[in-house]
Amino acid sequence: MSVAIHGQAVSRGVVIGRAVVLGANHLDVRHYLIEPDAVTDELLRLGRARDAVAQEINAVKAHVATLGAADAPTELAALLDVQLMMLEDQAMADGVRQWVIERRYNAEWALTAQLDAIGRQFDEMEDPYLRERKADVGQVVERLLAALKGESLSLEHVVKEHPQQDDTPLILVAHDLSPSDLLQFKQSVFSGFITDVGGKTSHTAIVARSLDIPAVVGARAASQLIQTDDRVVIDGDAGVVVVDPSDILCDEYSFKQRQGVLERERLGRLRNTPSTTLDGEAVQLLANIELPSDTEAAMAAGAVGVGLFRSEFLFMGRAKRNLPPLPSEDEQFEAYKEAVQGMAGMPVTIRTIDVGADKPLESNRGGQEKLNPALGLRAIRWSLAEPTMFLTQLRAILRAAAYGQVKVMFPMVAHLSEVRQALQLLEKAREQLLAQGQVFGDVKVGAMIEVPAAAVMAPLFLQHFDFLSIGTNDLIQYTLAIDRVDEDVAHLYDAMHPAVLRLIAQTLDAGRAVGKEVSICGEMAGDVGLTALLLGMGLRQFSMHPTQMLAVKQQVLRSDTRQLTPWAQEVLASDEPQAMLSDA
Ligand code: PEP
Ligand code: MG
Question: Which end of the chain, N or C, is more open, meaning fewer C-beta atoms within 10 Å of its C-beta?
Fold first, then answer.
């Protein structure tokens, strides 16, 4: 019987595929399909890992035997025996081999897949003692994974594309995925993903959008309702997941999928069309990127620059990539330079590190245990608390500016004191480079308007900055006091709330009054349902994921700001702006 699960629609499109459910502790495990001729080698890797773990457990056992009862409880020896037994269990070993031989899963993936399968059997056992043995199997698998890591291949090899074993797309289902986990999936075999938690503008959802694969977040119990190998449909437009769909339903979704492909092809023709309204107003469509290599997609979509480079992604997920906790000045410089060169002379706006809240830094886990991390030491607050790190980043950005047009932008400023300190540190970074005789370039300096206080103070901030960019994802979160990652309050997260619209309008007006650029780089800029309203409010710079750009351009081409401007004023004055959107 088919089951529909409703979540948050984060990434457009439809995919019909086979589910791969990941347990929460399996996210560090690499998932890829091996080549047919690599099966024997993969089984040998598993064999070597098993021998190494057996040796390890036997060594611990021997050590335990030399200790007295006070230092080593008898249960410990028994536990080690159980683990050895499990390691040698033929059914377990055969199960893992099967995943490798029949599915061509890599060894790590096969182990966790088998653990999930066995885990379900344990869960169904009536005897509580036997049920608890699930944890023992888990520990053995953890040991095996660690042993495999000892001889692990490079990340480049792991993420290298592997051919699908058949045409069925794979859909990743997990309780939660961090934005950096998701970034790792960028070159992986998955064609869609579903998570139990998360809101529409959580960073996981934002990265999903950049992957351009259908995705639904906040699907609550999806990871429990769906089992590995279930047939699943993701309708990324509606935010619906259908488990075990009927053939008729699959036909309907296949039709929708084909329509989506045709629509994309049609939009593709707009790539080189100048983004100008019917009445001749030029509108800049800029790209949001997470990695320097994303500039390729930005160029392909016809972006005229990068309006937001989320530099924090260079700082995240580093342990999994065997990198030092923080990127050095040179590593950052190379990354920024790559982005600048990738945009071939067009401007690149590098936002200084914005960690905290749903983008934790591995070396700063402590911060995440706070009750309200989104209100804590994040973004510019963190940078000002870590001036050495901040100066390193600023120097790297200034050096990259020697290779093209660079703009630097500070996230989440709210206090004038933060503005002053950030600008002083930028000046200090320049002085340090001068003293070192390093080559660097000029940068335009801007700030993000993400907290209501900053929107209200926009005229003051504009005295200190060359430009502003409105981060509507956070501006909505902080104006309405709605955690953007909490699916329980997602229904209250409302871009069309009059307070949000008025703060945006105020900021745009402040920029216009002094002739300085104000863009929007939050998800509102890529929402085609809002393009007309934002144009009417005077926005002329939209920054969004490249995947959204051509659809937004289509809206721009159909718009006439002479009509939209007075209409937008009515929407702004209305108590229920949402109701007026359809009149555009
Ligand atoms: C925003 O808050 O709108 C924004 C663009 O920044 P981020 O989504 O990275 O917090
Ligand atoms: Mg933000």
Answer: N
Q: Which atom of ligand 1 is least distant from the CA of 469?
A: 5
Q: How many residues does the chain have?
A: 584
Alpha-helical regions (H) of 190-310: 203-211, 222-225, 247-268, 295-300
125 contact partners, CB below 8 Å, separation of at least 6: 131
* Cα(404) to centroid(ligand 2), Å: 25
Q: Give me ligand 2 centre to Cα 12, in Å.
A: 22
The pLDDT assigned to 160 comes to 38
Residue 448 forms beta bridges with which residues?
469
Question: 424: alpha, beta or left, given left = phi > 0 and alpha = psi -120 to 50?
Answer: alpha
For residue 345, count other CB atoms closer than 10 A to its CB. Answer: 11
- For 58-99, the pLDDT digits (tens) are 877 776 677 665 555 566 677 778 888 888 888 889 999 999
pLDDT in tens, 317-346: 787 677 888 999 999 999 999 999 999 999
The token duo for 62 is: 């021997």
Q: Which ligand is nearest to the CA of 203?
A: 1
Closest ligand to Cα 470: 1
Which ligand places an atom closest to the C-alpha of 316?
Answer: 1
Distance CA 27, CA 101 (A): 22
Contact of 213 with 194, CB cutoff 8 Å: no
Q: How are the residues of the chain apportioned to helix, strand and coil, as percentages rounded to the nearest 5?
A: 55, 15, 30
Q: Reply yes or no on whether the pLDDT at 396 is more than 80.
A: yes
Q: Which of 412, 449, 450 to mutate to test the pocket of ligand 1 (most atoms within 8 A of CB)?
A: 450
Sequence letter at residue 581: L
What is the SS3 string spanning 511-580? HHHHCCEEEECCHHHHCHHHHHHHHHCCCCEEEECHHHHHHHHHHHHCCCHHHHHHHHHHHHHCCCHHHH
Model confidence pLDDT, tens digit, residues 160-170: 333 345 678 88
* 130 C-beta neighbours (distance < 10 Å), count: 11
Residues with CB under 5 A from ligand 2 (ion): 450, 471, 474
Spatial CA neighbour of 239 closest among 215, 206, 262, 255? 215
Answer yes or no: is pLDDT of 157 > 50: no
Q: CA 321, CA 184: separation in Å to the nearest integer?
A: 9
Of residues 173 and 380, more confidently modeled: 380
Would you call 137 helix, strand, or coil by DSSP? helix
Structure tokens at 365: 């886990």
CB atoms within 10 A of CB 74: 9
Percent of all residues in the chain with a pLDDT value above 90, rounded to a whole number:
58
Q: What does pTM read for this prediction?
A: 0.76
CA of 521 to the centre of ligand 1 (A): 7
- Is ligand 1 within 6 A of the CB of residue 477? no
Give the dihedral sign, CA 486/488/491/493.
Answer: negative
- Give the Å distance between the CA of 496 and the centre of ligand 1: 17
Answer for the pair 346, 330: CB distance below 8 angstroms, yes or no: no
Residue 342 Cβ contacting ligand 1 at under 6 Å = no
Q: Which residues are catalytic?
A: 203, 521
308 close to 285: Cβ distance less than 8 angstroms? no
